[in-house]
Every structure is written in structure tokens, then in C-alpha cells.
Amino acid sequence: MLSKKVKELLNNQVNAEFYSAYLYLDFHDFYKDAGLDGYANWYWIQAQEERDHAMLLMQYLQQQGERVKLEAIDMPDKELKEFIDPLKAGAEHERVVTGLINDIYAAACEEHDFRTMQFLDWFVMEQAEEEDNADGNVKKFELFGSDGKSLYELDAEMKARVYIAPSLVIG
Ligand code: FEO
Q1: How far are the Cα atoms of 7, 90, 154 from residue 11, in angstroms, in the given order?
Q2: I need a labelling partner for 158 at 20 to 30 A (CA). Which of 28, 53, 117, 145 fits?
Q3: Which residues are within 8 A (CB) of 28 and not within 5 positions of it... i.e. 6 or more apart?
Q4: Please, which pLDDT band fits residue 166 given cuts at 50, 70 and 90?
């Protein structure tokens, strides 16, 4: 059985992951509007991954016999002007999410909730990948994004990303 604190944190994380999906849909829309279809594609897929994260957390809560409370999702509020803005905001956001995952892990650890810790292991490593990808996007744009031809090629590279469902399936 989950403790009240761990349950609340996991439930909050369902909302945080759906917020991430919502935020990345906004980034998708920004790039779509700008004609950068590759970057739009990258965030379209990222939004699907975030939805998957939320649903995995929901499944885990359900498997523990808990009812999930779906709360209102905040409006995306990042100011997007320059092409690099979503990339920087995305990298910053992923660090916030890593902090949230770590907080749940710490709470589970304190309560010797080994099952939740093991469940969260996947998320801990996923955050390492998410931060690495987000930082890589910023770096590449800083190196090549100011030149039209290079930006065209970068955008084509982002367009190659395809959606892969997470292999972690519960229940
Ligand atoms: Fe679900 Fe991007 O972390």
C-alpha cells in the first residue's frame, strides 16, 4: 500500500506529465506556424512521450489499488519569440521534471517503498535521456541555427524522429 505522501506525489506527477505534453504541443504549434515542420514533428512526438509517462504513472497507481485524481492542466506560459526559445525552455523544463521525479524517489526511499523506487528507476533514467536530448537540441541550434541553409538541414534532421512507445508496460 502506498503512503499518503507517495500517493499524492505520484498523482501530482500524472498532472505534471500531462502539463509537459501540453507545453510541448504549444512548442509544436509554434514551429508549425513558423514553417519549421521538423522541429514541429520533434515536439509532436515529445508530447506523445509525455502523455505515455502520465499514463504509466496512472497504471502504476491503479495497480496499487489507488484511484487517480485528474486535475486541471495549466496553460502553457512560456514566451516564444525566437526559434531557439522552445529549445531552451524545454531543457529548463526537463530539469524541473527531473527534480520532481527525484522528490518522489526520495519520499519512497524514506518510507522503504521499494516497489515504487523500482518503478521510478525507469523514470530516473528516462530523465537523463530527456535532459541530454534537450541540451543537445540547444547546442546544435546555437552552433548551426543562425544560418538559413544549416537551419534547413537541422529541421530535416528533426523531421526524422519517429514515435516509439515505451517498452515499460504495466498490467
Ligand atoms: Fe516526462 Fe520529459 O519528462
Answers
A1: 6, 22, 37
A2: 53
A3: 40, 41, 43, 44, 47
A4: confident
Tell me how far the alpha carbon of residue 102 lies from the centroid of ligand 1, in angstroms: 13
Among the listed residues 157, 144, 158, 119, the one whose alpha carbon sits nearest the alpha carbon of residue 13:
119
Which pTM does this prediction carry? 0.96
> What contacts 169, CB < 8 A, 6 or more positions away?
none
Q: CA nearest 62: which of 115, 5, 11, 105?
A: 11
Distance 50 CA to ligand 1 centre (A): 5
**Is the CB of 17 within 6 Å of ligand 1?**
yes
